[in-house]
Amino acid sequence: MFQRILVPTDGSDLSKKAVRAAIRLAAGTGARLVAFHAIPKFRTFTLDAQMLEDTAGEYRAASAARARTLLAAVAAEARKAGVACDTAHASSDQPWAAIIREAKRKRCDLVLMASHGRRGLQGVLLGSETQKVLTHSTVPVLVYR
After folding, report:
1. In the sheet where 141-144 sits, what is the strand order?
2. Where does the record place the UspA domain (predicted)?
């Protein structure tokens, strides 16, 4: 059925549920998992409080460390379930585009992602990354709610 499943994560509760669903699906089909995290690029004008407090270098270092921590947790959970898991992260102003690029780069045949990530004002201004992946991806997308 599926051989490689890309699962993007942002560390939110819904994203964690989607990760668990992706692990169950991978375990049931014998697929390999690719856990992915998109890091927003540093901006001087932003709604992200962390960017307001950090320099560009501090932000990049902290974001990469956070990505490694998030992805290590996914890999550990996958390992417990007997699922092979690769991890990757990238900086991008368009997380949806980074997700699609990584799915193609890793030759994934499915993207399994949460129905939405950001909430509140950020969600309204930035829109749904899931909706953008659904609209632009040539790789099948399974949306988890």
Report:
1. 85-91, 32-39, 4-8, 110-114, 141-144
2. 1-145
Q: Contact 86/73 with Cβ under 8 angstroms?
A: no
**Domains of the chain, residue spans:** 4-144
What's the CATH number for 4-144?
Answer: 3.40.50.620
Q: Are 15 and 102 a contacting pair, CB within 8 Å?
A: no
d(CA 99, CA 96): 5
Q: Write out pLDDT tens, residues 55-80.
A: 888 888 999 999 999 999 999 999 99
pLDDT at 39 over 90: yes
Give me the pLDDT at residue 44, please.
62
